[in-house]
Amino acid sequence: MISRINHALLSIGLASAMLITLPAQAHSVWLLPSSTVLSSPQFITFDAAVSNDIFYFNHRPLAVDTLVITAPDGSHLDPANVGKGELRTTFDLKLEQSGTYMLDILRSGLRANWKVGGQPKRFMGNAEAFAREVPANADDLQVGESIMHVMTFVTMGAPTAVKSSGIGLEILPITHPNDLVMGEPAEFQVLVDGKATADVDIEVVSGQSRYRNALGETRYKSDKQGKVKVNWSQPGMYYLDAELKDKNVSFKQAKERSLSYSVTLEVMPQ
Amino acid sequence: MRNWVPVLLPSLIAGLFAHQGMAADLNIKVNIPQINASEYHRPYVAVWIERVDQSVAQNLALWYSQKSGPEGSGTKWLADLRQWWRKGGRDAQLPLDGISGATRPVGEYSLSFNDGKALAALPKGEYRLVVEAAREKGGHELVRIPFNWPATKADTQKVDGQQELGAISLDIKP
């Protein structure tokens, strides 16, 4: 698992070709599973997109080159039949083991802004590319790090425990993410680098927003133990996200670190 | 002393057998209604007894497609019995011995548990009979009937399903 995640972290150089939404931007980034609760081995399919509206394909596909799929036994699986369209990326996954599968598009990298002769310059990429492309003595150099998770969970058979990656910001499900039903609040714990973190704002939005006037987002703040209890307003697909900036940088030129996490969850009717 | 011994004796004997399960009756009738649909498939049905906390105390019947078809194995759709699946199905080893069976056509089905064996493990307390139905290209319905076990007196309760289930009755006797 560690090596796969390191690979994901390093491969940001490739990912940087696509200027993906990072914290504090307007677009939503999501993975949408065709099913989340399954009773026999089978294929399911996923959409991955960057959009203005949650779960509507109206902007750009989301690249899945840094996707890490963790099977119930801890092994990693590759997505099948990856197809990149103009508005979404799709891929399939065959669930053969009983238990919970975690899907995580994990991206991290550096961003830099500076000026050459008054003209703004911009960089996004990994540390190697940074050393190559960003002049060390650039004017007005501003460097930031970022780590982004885009997640979802699916379960075949009985659910198994979900684990923190310990990387960046996470809204770790305490109530199992494939055991969510109307009328039962679900508990989450906000972690930063694997540590419980208080006072982080979380936004919860249900899908189908096209068919209502208000976005209807609900906001929560993590308590002293980093815990949040979420009440669902209706069954359906939900998008939870959080963003955070801190100074815990790992790259010496960076001043600030931008963290984001989003997860798609399905809430069943009673 | 001679006077009260014979009076006490029957209750002592009854006490001896109390731990081995009362030979009480529990009879259930499940009606699968006629539904006019352009494409009708027999519903998947689960019948079980739940505790007050909604955990499964005893599975009684599970009717689902026993065959594999072009759309996969019959177990593929068991998650559509979403309450049963969540409360116990997903942890069960299928098929459930003596409980799993094929889907049933429209009609009334009687389930009788009167030998004491199936329900012997059920401690005294409050329970609910739960009947859940899910139909391919159709709807989903769940009916609950509360009862106390073992029965202290004969009691019959009937609840009419609205969509996917017809009349469900529970008849218990001490």
**Distance N terminus to C terminus of chain B?**
31 Å
Give the largest chain-chain interface (CB within 8 Å). Answer: A-B, 13 and 15 residues
Task: Name the average pLDDT of chain B.
Answer: 86
Kindly, what is the distance between the CA atoms of the first and last residues of chain A, rounded to a whole number of angstroms?
Answer: 36 Å
What is the strand content of chain B?
A: 35-45%
Summary of the model, kept short:
Chain A is built from 3 helices and 19 strands. With 270 residues, chain A is mostly beta strands.
Q: Explain this structure to me?
A:
- Chain A is mostly beta strands and 270 residues long.
- Helices cover 7% and strands 49% of the residues of chain A.
- Chain A contains 3 helices and 19 strands.
- In chain A, strands 2, 5, 6, 9, 10, 11, 15, 16, 18 and 19 form a 10-stranded mixed beta sheet that branches. In chain A, strands 1, 3, 4, 7 and 8 form a 5-stranded antiparallel beta sheet that branches. In chain A, strands 12, 13, 14 and 17 form a 4-stranded antiparallel beta sheet that branches.
- In chain A, a hairpin with a 2-residue loop joins strand 9 (99-116) and strand 10 (119-125).
- The radius of gyration of chain A is 19 Å and the shape is globular.
- The two termini of chain A are 36 Å apart.
- Chain B is mainly beta.
- Helices cover 11% and strands 40% of the residues of chain B.
- Chain B is built from 2 helices and 11 strands.
- In chain B, a hairpin with a 6-residue loop joins strand 10 (155-160) and strand 11 (167-173).
- The longest helix of chain B has 13 residues, at 5-17.
- The model of chain B is unreliable at 1-21 (pLDDT under 50).
- Classes of the chains: A mainly beta (270), B mainly beta (174).
- Chains A and B meet through strand 2 of A and strand 5 and helix 2 of B.
- Chain B: Residues 1-23 form the signal peptide.
- Chain B: This is DUF2271 domain-containing protein.
- Chain B: InterPro entries: DUF2271.
- Chain B: It holds the Pfam family DUF2271.
- Chain B: It comes from Methyloradius palustris.
